[in-house]
Amino acid sequence: MKLVTFSVGSGLRVGLTDGEHVADLTARLSTHPRTMIELIERWDDVAGEVRAIGDRDHALADVRLHAPIPRPGKIYALGLNYRQHVAEMGRELPAHQTWFTKPGTAVNGPYDPVQRPKVSEQLDYEVELVVVIGKRCRHVPAEKAQEVIFGYCVGNDVSVRDWQTRTQQFVIGKSFDTHAPFGPWIETSDGVDAGDLDLRLLVNGEERQHSNTRDMIFDCAAQVADLSTAMTLEPGDVIFTGTPSGVAAGMRPPRWLKAGDRVRAEISGIGHIEALVVDEVAEIHAPE
């Protein structure tokens, strides 16, 4: 099933889509979920109701899709997780998972513009499979990880490379506003084989990345096991699971994104997201 966060006019709502139409779950379900996190938390109680919905309320073209989870409790992302990407960056295969975070303010809608920041010209793209956690959990063994994964999205871990590499801690280069677009919906885990998905990223129609999740060094189950060893994972937490080769930083010379570029990230069986790159218009937000 494909679950969306959408709006028609003002106010966010939760919906079910078939790719052409949307059913308003906020209005239809007995629990009236206001957010995707509420829906995920109550999924065991309402899944039957959702599956029974036949007709739809809106054409998909008539609604605005937002990030499925507009403000996740946690966003973690895994670096250097595809063998060919590690090779193009001239690195050795990691013995341990390399984690960083992205803030909630980086979340962006699946078709909203991505900003090229005023402070850098080294704007890069990274198509990624995104995992959405479905249950509160801790110390989850890899063989049980599928039980706590609610679903999957398409993501783009947009990166500002000079800010990422200027210190050993590269979180800030991954944290700029609009630099965590994902969606266009959550494909529930019962319909996805995360171990065999094709990923592609195109810039202005030119293919830059093309791989398969089989090239992952640490699969989704291993990632859930690793993270949950350190922290409690909660419904609606989001994991960006790594990117394949073909990033702009790996090219000689690098081919950074610029204003006017259109970036499309897609994953087989899930869907695609697409963004126009725009130059940031800096505004000072400070107390008067």
From TrEMBL:
UniProt keyword annotations, A-Z: Isomerase, Metal-binding
GO BP: carboxylic acid metabolic process
Record-linked InterPro entries: FAH, Fumarylacetoacetase-like_C, Fumarylacetoacetase_C_sf
Alphabetized GO MF terms: isomerase activity; metal ion binding
Limits of the Fumarylacetoacetase-like C-terminal domain: 74-277
Family that this chain belongs to: Belongs to the FAH family.
Name of this chain's protein: 5-carboxymethyl-2-hydroxymuconate isomerase
Organism of origin: Tardibacter chloracetimidivorans
